[in-house]
Every structure is written in structure tokens, then in C-alpha cells.
Amino acid sequence: MGETLKEKTAKGLFWGGMNNGMQQLLGFVFGIIMARLLKPEYFGLVAMIIVFSAVANALQNSGFSTALVNEKEQKASNYNAVFWFNIGMGIAIYILLFFCAPLIADYYDEPRLVWLCRYAFLSFVFSSWGVAQAAYLYKNLRAKQLAKANIIAVLLSSSIAVIMAWQGFTYWAIATQTNLFILFSTMLRWHYSEWRPSLQVDFSFIKRAFPFSVKILLSEILTQVNNNVMNILLGKYFGDKSTGQYYQANQWNFKGYSLVQNMVKQVDQAVLVKLSDERERQLAVLRKMIRFAAFISFPLLLGVGLVSKEFIVLALGEIWLTSAEYLQIICIAGAVIPISTLLADLLISKGRSDIFMWCTLILGVCQIVALVLLHPYGIQMMVYAYVALTLLWVFVWHFFVRRHTGYSLLMLLKDILPFALAAIAVMALTGFATQMLSILWLKLLCRIILATILYYAVMRLVGAQILRECQDFFMNKLKKQ
């Protein structure tokens, strides 16, 4: 008997959680080692150009990949068209950026960036080979295989990077880590996917899907620019050391929210597309996913903010103390990013890539204008502006989702506020109860344990349905073992 859509979604969320949980655990361990081996300025140099590698990685989950996922009928000729098109585009983009590297170095007045850029830009070539394979696995809800590919890729790339950092390769080690992650994940997606390219190509699919796909692709590029705009501007105005401090804080924030974001992204669009003809059922599924994201995201990210100082000092050293101050602020934005992602993916499932693109573009413009205007007042004011705009944009995404689904503002607030308020209260109480502890490791441990117990107790006390469903799912998994 075949699995129901609900069962496939639950399994997808489970493996999405395993995938990202293991990735973040490995990233946690290797991130600490790299931070202890390398100076902030080395991270700052890579942060100035990290947006390009982020764009390369996003290519595997955007553009024509999204168009393939949105197609109700799978055709090998369509996958072939996307495969060959992306390889050509990847090589062309690399050649273009290779010759633009001196211009990027001039922008930052940093000559070392010329060859660092040219090395980092290889990620565009590596990622182009995995676009169609990633789409195939994603379309067929093969979250388990995607999880294995990413976990192995993180383990291998991070191990090699640590060895390089230990041997004195400085910022080259950080760039290598990103390149190898994309290369290994691409190779493993080939291993886990049954589909193989051929010359049976239907380029009419490219032509037909282009208006939709190009908006998605541009939106993903804009999203990566938006996510890294602080690194770009800090590198210009404040230099590599300050950029490195912020980059480190943002990396730990990213590890937190991407755990939730990528968990739901493993299944959300594929499921929402399948339900595109059932409006009420689609809305019900969206609301459940948002409640699930809020249930995990708010306590996780606000908890990161609560223990940021103790964690950074103990794990990375006092040299990174400034990054702890930034982390306390930006984790507020991180808490709502998975919710914004779900709302945006609903619009994509409705075929409204134009709304996705324009909302992302306007957000980017607002961020750049606000940050440029505020940079004379210091980095902290820039961080506050970034967080404020991220919070505001949840309601911008919701405005358009409401028009297409009837998802009212009251519904949204009912879905997220109980978890947000509970997390805020728990973190405030935990912080107050442990503020007198002077031993850092003891304060860190007590805050983690107390906050976890209190949040779980609150969820049990109010009878949170999402908690019961998660417990039932894991109990069923254990019974089947």
C-alpha cells in the first residue's frame, strides 16, 4: 500500500530535520575548530565575497529546478534541457566573474581578493552539474537521499578545511570548505538519483518555463544578496576585522534558522503544488507548517541569543566577543525567516514568481538604502535596521498570500504568536533566574537545560497540538524499528 501525502510529508520533515540537524551539528563542531585556528580578518575576507558562493549553492534549488518541481508530469527531456542549459550557464558565469575579479578587489581596496574570487567562483561550475539531479530528488520527496548527500558533503569538506587551516592556509581553507561542499553534494546527488542525462532534449520546456524560472532565479540571487548585504557593506566601510566579527555571528544565526528553514523546504513546495487544486486543504497544510516552524524556530533562535555571550567566549575565545553582541540582535530576525520562507514558497506554488521576485527586490533596495544611510552611526545601528526590515517583511509576504489563499492576518497571528510569546517569556525568566551565576560554563549549561524544560512545560500546559503530533510521530517511528 502506497504512502499517503501526509505520511510522505511527515517523513520528509523528519529527514529534513535529520539532514539539517546533522549538518548544523557538524557545522557547530567544525565551526568552533576553524574559529580557533583562524583570525577574524581571514573570515572577513571570505565574507566579502561569500555572496557569490551562496548564489552558486542556491542555483541547485532555484530557477529551472523550481520549474521542474512545479511540473505535474515528469519528462526526461525536460530534465535534460535543464541539465545542459545550466552547465552552459555555469561555465559562462564563471568566465565572466573570472575577469570581473579585479573590479571586486578594487571595490574593497583589497588586492588579495583577486585570486580568492577566482578560486571561490569555481562553485558556480560545480553547482551547475547538480541542478537537475537536485530537482529530481526534491520532486520525488527523496528527502532521505538529500539528507545523506548533504551530511557526507559537510563532513568531508569540513575535515579537509580544518586540515588546511591547521597547516596555515588561512582564508584559502574557508573558501575550499565551501567549494568542496558544493562539489561533494553534487556528486552524491548523482549517486542517489536514478535519472541520467541524455541528448534527448526538449528546449521548448526552457522557453515555456523561462518567464517563471528567470523570476525565481533572480529572486534567489537577490535573496542571497539580501542575506549577505551586511557583509558587503561592512567590508566596504569597516574593513576585514569588523566584517569577520559580524560574519561569525551571522554564521551561528544561520545555523539556527536554517535548521528549521531547510527542514520545511525539503517538502513544502512539492506538497503545496500537489494541493494547488484544493484551496482549503492547501491552506490547512500551510498553516500546520507555519505552526511547526514557529514551534521550533522561536525557542531555538531566542535561545541562541540568550546564551550567545557564554557560548562564543567558551567555544571560540574572547577574541570573538564582539560577534556575541551582534548575535544577540540578529537572532530575532532569524526566528522569523523560516516563516517568511513558507509564505514565499506558497506564492511560488501558485505560479506567482513575479510577486516573489519583486518583493525580494524591494526588500533588498530597502536594506541597502537603510544600511548605507545608517553606516555613519556604527555597525550596531545597521544590525538593528536589518532586523527591523526582516520582521516587517513577514507581513509583506503575508499580504500577498492572503490575497491568494484567504489566510487572514488573525490566522497568521494565531499560528505564530503563542509560540513567540511563550519563547520570549521562557527566555526572560531563564535569563533572570541565572543572571547571578558567574561561572560561564555553568551559566551556559543551566540556561540551556532550564529554558528547554520551561518551554516544554508551557507547551504541555497549554496543550499545544503540534507538540502532540511530533511526539506521536517519533513514538510511531520507534515502534517500527
What does this structure look like?
This protein has helices at 5-37, 40-58, 64-70, 76-108, 113-120, 122-128, 131-139, 143-166, 170-192, 203-237, 239-265, 268-274, 279-306, 308-315, 321-349, 353-374, 379-405, 409-434, 440-461, 465-480. The protein has 481 residues and is mainly alpha-helical. It has one domain (5-480). Helix 2 runs parallel beside helix 9 (170-192) and helix 4 runs parallel beside helix 10 (203-237). The mean pLDDT is 85.
List keywords for this structure.
globular; mainly alpha; 481 residues
What does the secondary structure layout of this molecule look like, with pairings?
Layout: H1 5-37, H2 40-58, H3 64-70, H4 76-108, H5 113-120, H6 122-128, H7 131-139, H8 143-166, H9 170-192, H10 203-237, H11 239-265, H12 268-274, H13 279-306, H14 308-315, H15 321-349, H16 353-374, H17 379-405, H18 409-434, H19 440-461, H20 465-480
Task: Write a concise synopsis of the structure shown.
By secondary structure, the chain is mainly α. The chain has 20 helices and no strands.
Radius of gyration: 22 Å
| Count of helical stretches | 20
Fraction of helical residues: over 70%
Strand residues, percent: under 5%
Cα distance, first to last residue? 19 Å
Number of domains: 1
Largest sheet: none
DSSP, total strands: 0
What do the pLDDT scores average to? 85
Briefly note the structural class of the backbone: mainly alpha
The low-confidence runs, each spanning 5 or more residues with pLDDT under 50, are none
Provide the succession of SSEs. HHHHHHHHHHHHHHHHHHHH
Anisotropy-based shape:
globular
